[in-house]
């Protein structure tokens, strides 16, 4: 494609390095320029409207263009645009949001620490878990277990827990302290005749065997998303989390629930931990915490996690950690306002009420002759297509084709392999869910033709 000299598309190619693209190919294709957003819609620079079927990056819960959030940001910027929380300083917005989160947590939590992204938060949880093990006099207890297809970000430790080859290859990841167990993809990997409960038991047995092989005294923590999202939306089968937690408790391994996508209503409860009966030591929150209007993430930790860390800082005289933007006043003020909107408008209830329709429409699309299966819970789901077997077809070709065809029909959704993933803003209505899936149905028909 050629772009006008000095157009935004041409300048983008000239100056910006983009994530998750083939950079050489990007020079030829460029990008779709999104100019503004309103509710569940975004508009490109030619004025075309799209349903944002992934809420940006699984994150814009309250929809685009919410004035209450821009007003909250302006108010805070006018009053105190920036201040830090280092070395005996603090400010109101970070305290207000920390108190709010401790009050909302589904299990007793002791402290909150703010960071700016999901990756940064997960990376820091690893560092704190190592610090904690040293504090407890267990310097060997440092290994971290994640899951294949799990996604926890891309910084060095978080990227190492992520279980996706594309986030490791040529980056020299994962770190050698990281291990991975299987993805709980019941539909895709159950043995013939295996029930969900038996599958979950097998997943837990695999985890237990790994912990025993490594040595329980060397394993610090297990990280898991309540619902695996960025790996392709895998909803845990019956009993999965109960079985996994029993193993972790048996060997004194911390459980870190990565709620970066599930948190704040995505699964039909405020937190994915509530939907699946998870009782974590640490919860990591981001994305819908501020509807991504500001970069913000939070680590919630229980006393079991926090107390040894506090003791160690007393022994050393200081906790030798801190980010310039931790607890940023504008980000935390926007986060608090965003959570108030989620509560006042009962967006968690909206998710719960509309989920049956959302899943029914997804299941309906899975009847299409190009489709293989579907997965989903709350307002997050995936439609998996049959892989293309034509000579020369690359893996993921079916997914790429449906993503492009859906875009043509005015829906932005994310292809992961051959699965097209949906995670619309929580403000979506029944009518809009209908319009979104009608458009995807037309997209499937276009490809089939
Ligand atoms: N954890 C989960 C579950 C995520 O889905 C993501 C991002 O998609 C991250 C962590 C990383 O967050 P960030 O992109 O803000 O670093």
From TrEMBL:
GO terms for biological process: biotin biosynthetic process; gamma-aminobutyric acid metabolic process. One of its GO terms (molecular function) is pyridoxal phosphate binding. Its cofactor is pyridoxal 5'-phosphate. It comes from the Bacteria. Keywords: Aminotransferase, Pyridoxal phosphate, Pyruvate, Transferase. InterPro entries: Aminotrans_3 (IPR005814), Aminotrans_3_PPA_site (IPR049704), PyrdxlP-dep_Trfase (IPR015424), PyrdxlP-dep_Trfase_major (IPR015421), PyrdxlP-dep_Trfase_small (IPR015422). Pfam families: Aminotran_3 (PF00202). The keyword Transferase applies. CDD domains: OAT_like (cd00610). Gene3D superfamilies: Aspartate Aminotransferase, domain 1, Type I PLP-dependent aspartate aminotransferase-like (Major domain). Belongs to the class-III pyridoxal-phosphate-dependent aminotransferase family. This is 4-aminobutyrate---pyruvate transaminase. The lineage of its organism: Bacteria, Pseudomonadati, Pseudomonadota, Alphaproteobacteria, Hyphomicrobiales.
